[in-house]
Amino acid sequence: MKAFYKLLVAALIVGTTNNFVWFALTFWIYLGTKSVVSTGMVAGIYLIATALSGMWFGSLVDHKKKKYVMLGSSAVTLTFFIVGFLVYHLNSPSAFTSVTSPALWLFVIPLMLAVVAGNIFNIAVPTLVAHLVPKDQHDKANGMFGTVTGIAFAITSVASGTTLAFGGMFLVLIVAIILTVFALIYLAFLSLPEKKVIHRGEAQGQKNLPAGRQVDIMGTIKVIRAIPGLFALIFYATFNNFLGGVFMALMDAYGLSLVSVQIWGFMFGILSMGFIIGGLIIAKKGLGKNPLKTLLRVNIVTWTVCIFFTIQPSIILLFIGMAFWMTLYPFVEASEQTVIQKVVPPERLGRVFGFSQSIEQAAAPFTAFLIGPIAQFIFIPFMTTGKGVERIGGWFGTGTGRGIALVFIIAGIIGLIVTLLTMRSKSYKLLTAQYKE
After folding, report:
1. pLDDT tens column, 42-97
2. Residue-by-residue DSSP string for 343-409
3. Among candidates 288, 71, 324, which has minimal Cα distance to 191?
4. Of 47, 139, 207, 228, whose CA is between 20 and 30 Å from 406?
């Protein structure tokens, strides 16, 4: 457990750095371009890269020493941060004010790839839980990882807005580069007593498998199919992410329509305590005898909240709704991780986590890319100059923010219906039985 605690410190450094850049970049782009299309595009690029890299990251985690994989990840992140810094330094500020500007995307893409490279920690840490933590403590260890995620979120949500307001992206990138160098040094001296895992290919004398064979998508699919209900769990999480892309693409634009960037960032810092509280509750109490039931019950609450937290243009109502969502989110992540850690063979954990990350994240880019233009050209006009103003504007409100709010409400209704249907499905019953066995 001591090694696991030290690993959490490394995850905290990397998570803090990546979230710091992500928040600052999203704020900076929206404030510079004044377009939700730009934030949707950024979210889409990030999620597509995450989806495409997940299975490869999973194979690296399974076939290499986890420490070396994480070191390599941080080295790649540092390289892309430096590239982004050079692009920013060599262009004038006016080059980044249009969605169609090549300089803007030459700056955005390296930073997104830097953050994506850090996502390998989201596969390596849950995989190492199975190696470093006793089985009966897996759910609590996943809760600790959720707490670390919350702390990183809390630190960076405040720091990103404040740093951006007073030092711009120049200072943001300098801080990111320094933190990444520190992460590399910390990881270099971190000792992880990883257990040797004999893979099937190695057992047959095929120690040096080609890279393509190491990814082994078909073998991973066979493992998942052999576990009743596991595919259904992954597809349910995929559908949740499909709807989650709506919030990822539009939430910052909605929040910044109500308050300044400094207040929005500070508010996220307070709200991030929900991540920490949720993770600490799991670390202390666990997830109960049936993590699947916990997952679905939590989603019923979160989707219900999503229906009502933008029903009026109130920052207080938004704050309350997001507090519920952030406190409950660690339960969703920890529940899925705990189920996979228990029902999947240890030698396949990295690849299954990578596969699930790729599949689940593949849905959100589609939504993020699609929802920005839909909100910009359909829902926002509907609530500013369209029929929505006359039909519901009297009680719902009018303007750009109300168009975005209407998208959130529709997504919440769909999510609630699907969750209720999932609780009655055969796949849910089969996977619950498999987990108990």
Report:
1. 776 777 787 778 878 888 888 888 888 999 999 999 999 999 999 988 888 777 87
2. HS-GGGHHHHHHHHHHHHHHHHHHHHHHHHHHIIIIIHHHTTTSHHHHHTHHHH--SHHHHHHHHHH
3. 71
4. 47
Sequence letter at residue 5: Y
Using a 10 angstrom Cβ sphere, with 0-12 exposed, 13-18 middle and 19 or more buried, the burial of residue 202 is middle
DSSP conformational letter for 64: S
The rounded distance, in Å, linking the Cα atoms of 167 and 24 is 11
Q: Please, what is the Cα angle at 203 between 202 and 206, to 5 degrees? A: 40
- Cβ count within 10 A of residue 208: 8
> Which tokens go with 173?
């990138």
Burial group, residue 211, by CB count within 10 angstroms (0-12, 13-18, 19+): exposed
Do 245 and 47 contact (CB within 8 A), yes or no?
A: yes
**Residue 148, helix vs strand vs coil:** helix
Q: Tell me, yes or no, if the pTM score tops 0.90.
A: no
At 291-341, the pLDDT tens digits run: 889 999 999 999 999 899 999 989 999 999 999 988 998 898 889 888 888
Distance CA 77, CA 115 (A): 7
3: which 2 tokens?
């090694």
Q: Which domains does the chain have, with CATH numbers?
A: 2-190+217-436 (1.20.1250.20)
Distance between CA atoms of residues 148 and 151, nearest Å: 5
Q: Give the integer Cα–Cα distance in Å for 311 and 402.
A: 9
Q: List C-alpha distances in Å: 288 to 83, 136, 284, 335, 436.
A: 46, 11, 11, 10, 12
Burial 54-86 (b: 16+ CB within 10 A, else e): bbbbbbbbbbeebbebbbebbebbbebbbbbbe
CA distance 88 to 169: 8
